[in-house]
């Protein structure tokens, strides 16, 4: 199995325990991590996921949590930008951030994990190897209610507790 691209819906689910996708995101990302799959998030999805944290002046916490989960932020390359523009031009109802996520998955030859129905619809109409591109794409849950973002997910807390335990044993 190759890399896994996480879109903003997954990042928000990971970071906010009140999000409708929280349990699915934690489970799906834990499973990918245990399988040794490299985890990436396009810079656009990263920015989108940080908005609520920026409003709460908690961007540093969100950044640290994402880094602690081993998620690499993939920068927007010129090739990705050009592909995203082509996808956006072809699918007028698709937002540009979603087109960038699709372009990132294509450039990195990775599967995509998303809970966004619009991405699922576009993936099902894009030419190419539909089975591999959609096998990790998840269905949409009901939208979450607005809440202050919570950090970190329980598995990050457990990870930090284990790190602290090992560091205290070494010292």
Structural summary, described in words:
The protein is of the alpha/beta class and 171 residues long. Helices cover 58% and strands 8% of the residues. It has nine helices and four strands, in the order βααβααβααβααα. A four-stranded parallel sheet has the order 3-2-1-4. α1 (8-15) packs across α2 and α5 packs across α6. The longest helix has 17 residues, at 154-170. It is globular and about 55 Å long.
Give the structure's gist in a few sentences.
This protein has helices spanning 8-15, 22-34, 43-55, 59-68, 78-90, 96-107, 117-125, 130-134, 154-170; strands spanning 4-6, 39-42, 71-74, 111-113.
Write out key terms for the chains shown.
171 residues, Rossmann fold, four-stranded parallel sheet, 9 helices, 4 strands
SSE blueprint and pairings:
Layout: E1 4-6, H1 8-15, H2 22-34, E2 39-42, H3 43-55, H4 59-68, E3 71-74, H5 78-90, H6 96-107, E4 111-113, H7 117-125, H8 130-134, H9 154-170
Parallel strand pairs: 1-2, 1-4, 2-3
CATH class: Alpha Beta
Characterize the quaternary organization of these chains.
single chain
Enumerate the strands of the largest sheet in spatial order, edge to edge or round the barrel.
3-2-1-4
Strand content: 5-15%
Number of domains: 1
**Tally of strands:** 4
Structural class based on helices, strands and sheet pairing: alpha/beta
């Amino acid at each position: 199995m190759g890399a896994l691209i996480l879109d903003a819906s997954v990042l928000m689910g990971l970071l906010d325990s009140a999000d409708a996708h929280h349990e699915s995101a934690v489970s799906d990302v834990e499973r990918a991590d245990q399988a040794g799959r490299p985890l990436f998030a396009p810079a656009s999805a990263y920015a989108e996921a940080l908005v609520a944290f920026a409003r709460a002046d908690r961007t540093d916490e969100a950044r640290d949590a994402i880094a602690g989960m081993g998620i690499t932020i993939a920068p927007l390359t010129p090739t990705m930008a050009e592909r995203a523009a082509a996808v956006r031009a072809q699918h007028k109802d698709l937002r540009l951030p979603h087109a960038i996520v699709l372009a990132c998955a294509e450039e990195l030859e990775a599967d995509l994990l998303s809970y966004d129905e619009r991405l699922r619809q576009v993936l099902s109409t894009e030419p190419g190897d539909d089975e591999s591109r959609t096998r990790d794409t998840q269905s949409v849950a009901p939208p979450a209610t607005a809440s202050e973002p919570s950090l970190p997910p329980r598995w990050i807390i457990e990870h930090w507790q284990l790190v602290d335990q090992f560091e205290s044993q070494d010292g």
